[in-house]
Every structure is written in C-alpha cells, then in structure tokens.
Amino acid sequence: MYQLIDGKAISQEIKAELKEKVESLRQQGIEICMAVIQVGSDAASSVYVNNKEKACAYIGIRSLAYRLPEETTEEELLKLVRELNAREDVNGILVQLPLPRQINEEKILLTIDPSKDVDGFHPMNVGNLSIGRPGFVSCTPAGVIQLLKRSGIEIEGKECVVLGRSNIVGKPMAMLLLRENATVTVCHSRTRNLKEITRRADILIVAVGKPKFIDADYVKEGAVVIDVGIHRNEDHKLCGDVDFESVASHVSAITPVPGGVGPMTIAMLMNNCVESIEKSRTL
Questions:
Q1: Which of the chain's termini has less CB crowding within 10 Å, N or C?
Q2: What CA–CA distance (Å, rounded) separates 137 from 269?
C-alpha cells in the first residue's frame, strides 16, 4: 500500500507554524507586509491572488493588493514596482504572471528588489541558490522538499530524477535536491531513452506540463513520485502529469492532484515573506 503525501495537511502545518512566528514578531513591534500586483483579470490569476490574500490573512501578514487594468503600460507597472521597492514597510513584492503582451515579464521581474523577491525568480536569488548562499527559493520546488521531509522520506544519497527543466520548477528543483545530497538527473524533451532513466529514480519529480504523461512503465517499483503538473481532463476534472491510477500500485509514496504540490506553493510563498525580515539583512 502506498503512502499518499497530503499537501493540504502539510501546508496547513507550515502555515500554523508561520502564524506563531508572525505573532512573535508582532510582539517585538515587527509587522510583515506583502504587496501583490495583478494586471488584467485572468481567471486563474484571480484565483491564485485570492488564495494568497487568504493565506496572508490567516497567518497575520499584511497584504497590499494592486489590481491594475489590462491596458496598464510597462512603464506604469515599473513605476509601481520601484515605489514598492523603496517602501520600508513592504517586505515582499509579488507580480502575478502571466502579464499582458505589452509588458515584458523579464524586465518587470528584474526590477523587483532581490531582497523583496518572495517568488524567488530574480537572477540574483537563482544565483544564490546555485552557489549555496542565502536567498529566496522558488516556492514550488521549496514546497516539494518540505513535502518529502515532512513525510519522512529521506533524500540524502537517493537517485532523483527531475522531469522538466523550467526556470521556475525543474532547474531550482535539481539544485535543491543537490543541496540535500541527492544524486540528480534532469530530463527534458530532448532526453533519449527516457523510460530507462526515470525507472532508475528512487524519487521521481514530474513537471512536464503534459496531462497523465507518466504511467507505470516510467516508474520503478517502490519509488516516490511527486506530481507538479495540474490540468483539466476531458471531463473538466483536475489531473496531473502522472497517471495516478496506473502508477499508484507501483510506488511507496505519491502526491495526489489536486491536494499535493499545489497547496505547498502558497505555503512556501508565505514562508518566504516571513523569512524576508532575516534575508533582507544578508542580500
């Protein structure tokens, strides 16, 4: 019987710990504030922003919400980001992606002060991760590490395969696993003999953006499988990059979709906000 890794329960555990920390900081006269900027009214973005605001309210982080119209210019958004960079009462800045076509996402992300980059996307924070210096880490990969650790799954010495090489998940995921002393292979669309490689994995982390791409043929008996993907199938039900029904009987532990990695992303964003007080002194 496999272990179902419950991201909802683990994320709630983390948020409860953060709530205590925030209350302790408040008693020392320290308030944490996160600014969230959304441009346009993309439905999925609105859901994410609302969930982030609810998490802030629960933990006790002050949230500043900026909902800008679709026609906002790049210069207007840059001006707002620079103003928030300069505000001493703002600890974290998050610009919800995607942005409208008239705005260069990279330019906006580069403008965010690295000490307030709670998404962990700024090249300075990515560089800090690669050389082991303090800095913010992308929330989804950081959440995966917490899922493994808090589920009692040892990472050190394990053979880990990361399927996907995006800047937001795949690459930082590989670096975090290396930090935990795993042996890491990164696979992608040009990888040859993919099944041979994934079947070696003690821990298989899948972030390819293809619904139910991974079935039992890709998975070693007794492996741990972490599914980062989220999609809607033909019946409009949520599913991941892993064919859960096919794979579950082969594994020792697996994350569900929904309720696995997803809740951890927001929990780790909140964690980055709380840590911003300390990190801002070292960046």
A1: N
A2: 9
* Active-site position among 6, 38, 96, 212: 96
Active site residue 52: yes
Whether 38 sits among the annotated catalytic residues: the reply is no
Catalytic residue among 113, 119, 227, 241: 119
Helix axes of 7-27 and 139-150: crossing angle, nearest 10 degrees: 110
Question: Radius of gyration over alpha carbons of the chain, in Å?
Answer: 19
Domains in the chain (CATH in brackets) are 29-113 (3.40.50.10860), 139-262 (3.40.50.720)
What are the percentages of helix, strand and coil residues in the chain, rounded to 5? 45, 15, 40
pLDDT for 25-51, tens place per residue? 999 999 999 999 999 988 888 888 999
For residue 70, pLDDT over 60 is answered with yes
- Tell me the residue ranges of DSSP E strands in the chain: 3-4, 33-39, 62-68, 92-95, 159-163, 183-187, 203-206, 224-227, 231-232, 238-239, 253-254
Q: Which of 274, 258, 244, 225 is nearest to 7 (CA)?
A: 258
User: What's the pLDDT tens digit per position in 197-232?
Assistant: 999 999 999 999 999 999 999 999 999 999 999 998
Backbone angles phi, psi at 236, to 5 degrees: 65, 20
As a whole number of angstroms, the distance between CA 155 and CA 160 comes to: 8
Assign residue 168 a region: left if phi > 0, alpha if psi is -120 to 50, beta otherwise? alpha
Active site residue 96: yes
In this prediction, residues 13-23 reach a mean pLDDT of: 97
- Backbone CA torsion sign across 41, 59, 33, 129: negative
Q: Which of 6, 38, 52, 212 is catalytic?
A: 52
Angle ∠(170,172,176) on CA atoms, nearest 5 = 115
For position 279, what pLDDT does the model report? 56
